[in-house]
């Protein structure tokens, strides 16, 4: 089966969906509300499931990604609570976790699409589903017709609100995230580290060029912002172990991003309605505590393309997509929420002490099993 699709949203999930659909013979237009793709963002870790999805889509990130062989979890004073064995993950899955600047991943995805596929500076907040035929999508001053619309328009998806008007939408998780990429290379002893304190965590991801992404996630009321976010991070985390002060010192104030973390606590009843498929954060926005948000969006893209290639009708394909993706992604979202509650969210000193002791006593294999539980996924065959 072939046809035409409009993908609403030019983020990682939307671009990946467009690549997959083109691979299986569909005509695709990606509509992005931003006038210019500025390639901003911090860093991202990709687990084996995300890398396998990219491979299925024909996107090679090898030269841009740095394997995460060393690291783990620490306490603010530097004590090692748990180690991550990247080599063991590689033996089990064929790849370790890798770190890559989000902007680099975005550029690689965009490079896999013809420039004429992208329509910039156009916002789609609703579509005309009409009857059983094609969907009419208002784009700029015109209207495009499509056999399928992919809603990849993020956590605050306008199309999700149209398809499921009674769904409560995203909820604030109770945590906010401040993050940046260092301006220059930094000396690091590990590829990845996560430090848990009381109601806060600080992590870093090392990149191939020697720079690093850092992120601070901490409990806070929604909407709180700081006049100088970097200065606030130095106040909060400057007394934590090395290399945290070094990472902050190597960062420009204007490079710092600050976002509240929202998630879909109430699961969607379906990931498709009529000829509209929801994908990525629009379908299953989750907290970052398992590092699976982008990986799940990439899985969505591969499965959606495979379903539309194999099934005789759009309706059958989207029903298959929903059946394959909704249980898995919603399970991962619940697991991410639990991980946050047992990790970064814990603020009471006694609870933090119990958590840290449990981590130190757990066998190293336990960390590998946690990753395997969500990362050991294989994509369908495309083409």
Summarize the structure in words:
The chain is α/β, with parallel strands linked by helices and 383 residues long. The chain has twelve helices and 18 strands. The strands form four sheets. Strands 6-5-13-14-15-12-16 form a seven-stranded mixed sheet. Strand 9 and strand 10 form a beta hairpin. The longest helix has 29 residues, at 314-342. The chain is globular and about 60 Å long.
Features:
single chain, 383 residues, seven-stranded mixed sheet, globular, 12 helices, 23% strand, alpha/beta, FAD/NAD(P)-binding domain
Question: What's the layout of helices and strands?
Answer:
Elements: E1 4-8, H1 12-23, E2 27-32, E3 43-46, H2 48-56, E4 66-67, E5 71-74, E6 80-83, H3 86-93, E7 98-101, H4 102-111, E8 118-120, E9 135-139, E10 142-146, E11 148-151, H5 158-163, E12 171-181, E13 192-196, E14 200-206, E15 212-219, H6 229-237, H7 244-249, E16 257-263, E17 272-273, E18 276-278, H8 281-284, H9 293-310, H10 314-342, H11 349-361, H12 364-375
Parallel strand pairs: 1-2, 1-11, 2-8, 5-13, 11-18
Antiparallel strand pairs: 3-7, 4-7, 5-6, 9-10, 12-15, 12-16, 13-14, 14-15, 17-18
